[in-house]
Design goal:
Length: 400
């Protein structure tokens, strides 16, 4: 998230751009409008940044609180007044800044057999991002804290742009988005530095170990034969991917990449792709940028929007649930501060122009993250009105 611009936006949350559609606009035939329905209205969360389900467990929703707790909510008890603290690692998570903290969780797709999950969070002294695996006790269903095994540590030069989605792909590999290291303008040139993991999406095999690391490098990673490149790299030229997801039908990887001063973008991530940061911001030349070094032409985003429409993109999901046929195949993404939600459809790498499908009225609903349930339905995590205030969960519905 772009802290400075988001803070400015919070001061004017009551005034979305005059040109933006509102809830009263008629639904378009080719792109349905949305409703959002509050989940667990009697439960207050603190800075919820991700909501996921474990494979095979359709009953529970696991919600990350940025300070370092994982809360477990029972979907069969919608009127509950309290969430269960499933895990608390606040002592080891550094969350002093707006973009630090516990940022992402993913359960092993083979969770029924392995009883393992991964967390991605910020630690301190030195400031670093950590990818850590934990076991779950199958008898109690609770995490075993002493089982923690650090798989990756990446030093962070600044306190912002920590990126932060960890997920498994359809290929069984683990993918992780890492921001460019922070400050502003990518001062260290990490976006185009192929020896750095910052400003990248990486791909590793966590079921094997090699070379003294707890993971292995997949042999088909795009830069394994480049001696000047980190072999973990899957894609480069990214500023600060805040939420990425695989379309569970097509296997395509969508990412929302937070911009600098002028544009937010959504990218369709492909093997070896270079998305242009910092020579470019979205489709536009960045005047403080440095020439790229990866050797490939920059790939264009599939969507972008200027900062009069929003200031910090929150990447989402392609809807593949069964409740709302008109939403089928629509990729939904949002702006964190302005609250707008857009939709688009892709056929291969050809995507329709984005359309606004929901527009906030008033000063609520700062969308911090989308989540996908096991059945393909989508939820939203929100900060309610201010970044330090309470948080909530919402279910996405089509206005049918």
């Amino acid at each position: 998230m772009n802290t400075f611009l988001v803070c400015l936006a919070v001061l004017c949350l009551q005034a979305p751009p005059a040109s933006a559609p509102t809830d009263s606009d008629p639904a378009k035939a080719d792109m349905p409008r949305l409703h959002v329905q509050r989940l667990f209205p009697n439960i207050t969360l603190r800075r919820p940044v991700q909501a996921v389900q474990a494979p095979g467990d359709d009953r529970h929703l696991y919600v990350l609180e940025q300070a370092g707790r994982v809360m477990r909510l029972d979907l069969t008890k919608p009127d509950a007044t309290e969430a269960e603290v499933w895990m608390d690692i606040r002592e080891q998570v550094h969350s002093a800044g707006n973009e630090l903290g516990l940022l992402s969780i993913v359960f092993d797709p083979k969770f029924a057999d392995t009883h393992q999950f991964f967390l991605y969070y910020t630690a301190n002294k030195p400031l670093r991002s950590e990818l850590t695996r934990f076991d779950v006790d199958p008898a109690t269903g609770m995490p075993v804290l002493k089982s923690a095994k650090v798989f990756l540590e990446v030093k962070q030069p600044y306190s912002n742009h920590n990126g932060g989605t960890v997920l498994f792909g359809p290929d069984g590999m683990l993918y992780l988005s890492l921001g460019d290291g922070g400050a502003a303008n990518d001062p260290h040139g990490n976006g185009q530095n192929m020896s750095a993991l910052l400003g990248k999406i990486i791909r590793i095999d966590v079921r094997r170990s090699e070379g003294g690391e707890p993971y292995a490098i997949p042999s088909d990673n795009p830069f394994v034969d480049n001696p000047k490149a980190a072999p973990e790299i899957w894609a480069t030229g990214l500023r600060n991917v805040w939420r990425m997801s695989f379309d569970r039908k097509t296997g395509q990887l969508f990412a929302g990449d937070v911009g600098q001063n002028a544009y937010e973008e959504v990218d369709l991530i492909v093997k070896g792709g270079n998305y242009g940061w910092n020579p470019r911001e979205g489709l536009h030349a960045f005047d403080k940028g440095k020439p790229g070094t990866a050797g490939a032409a920059y790939l264009d985003p599939i969507a972008e929007y200027p900062h009069d429409q929003g200031v910090s993109v929150t990447g989402g999901f392609v809807y593949r649930g069964g409740k709302w046929p008109s939403l089928q195949g629509v990729y939904l993404y949002a702006d964190y501060a302005f609250g707008t939600i857009w939709g688009l459809r892709c056929n291969g790498d050809r995507c329709t122009p984005s359309e606004v499908v929901w527009q906030r009225q008033g000063g609520k609903s700062m969308w911090s993250s989308f989540g996908e349930l096991n059945n393909g339905e989508l939820v939203l995590c929100a900060f309610d009105g201010t970044e330090s205030g309470p948080g909530s969960l919402w279910m996405i519905q089509a206005a049918e």
